Amino acid sequence: MPCRIAIDGPAGSGKTTIAKLLAKTLGIFYLDTGAMYRIVGLYLEKSDVSNDEEIENKLKELKLSFSDGDFFLNGKKVGDEIRTPDVGIYASKYAKNEIVRRYLTKLQREIAENENIVVEGRDIGTVVLPDAEVKIFLVATQEARAKRRFKELTEKGVKVTYEQVLNEIKLRDKQDSERNVAPLRKAKDAILIDSTKFSIEEVVQKILEVVKEKCKLLWQRE
Ligand SMILES: Nc1ncnc2c1ncn2[C@@H]1O[C@H](COP(=O)(O)OP(=O)(O)OP(=O)(O)O)[C@@H](O)[C@H]1O
Ligand SMILES: Nc1ccn([C@H]2C[C@H](O)[C@@H](COP(=O)(O)O)O2)c(=O)n1
What we know:
The protein is an alpha/beta fold. Helices cover 54% and strands 15% of the residues. A hairpin with a 2-residue loop joins strand 4 (70-73) and strand 5. Helix 2 (33-47) crosses helix 4. The longest helix is centred in the C-terminal third of the chain and has 17 residues, at 162-178. It binds adenosine-5'-triphosphate (ATP) and ligand LCLUPRNS.
């Protein structure tokens, strides 16, 4: 029986950082579904699509693959170009589209099938893997998330103000939680973790305790 760990939460709550560390600690796979929406969002924005038919046709042309933790778009490895605030907005914009969600959810389920895996996103515990063995809903205040993301971006040399980052987070929170299709919300059986006052290591430890209890086989393998 595989151990599927779903980590959902709003922009900048720490999903990617925590999921990567957790997967490394447990020696299992990791899937960043946000990266998939960022890749598709940037691709559709550049394609200047204006209706569902054009979106459907563009997705038919798209070759999105995943290998050894990297994404490849039409054979080219995807890099940090998808990590800008603007691409986060494109991702959130097209994530409201049912055709986009159907396309990516199918791919995510294929990747996660029968795997011990950590999958992070907005709708993993509610839509993509509703029977996941472990479900975490990771939150933090908007200000804490903006402060963390601002520090991360400025350390990367990205020219951005704290106010711009806070506004991007507020916009994405609103779009992600108010959309009709697969809105960001806590699954009934998910465990809420507010990381505002906890370090990355403390959050990982909290989740490992849950994994130890819910995924005994995986833990014994350790
Ligand atoms: N508990 C924490 N304490 C301090 N910093 C944190 C914590 N968790 C994450 N961070 C930092 O916050 C920043 C954002 O984290 P991360 O990119 O993992 O969030 P995310 O939820 O995946 O964001 P997005 O949904 O926008 O991709 C990173 O620089 C990360 O190192
Ligand atoms: N499972 C997912 C993952 C992501 N999205 C959308 C909403 C986010 O604002 C955007 C970028 O994700 P991030 O890189 O910030 O995790 O993609 C979604 O709707 N469902």
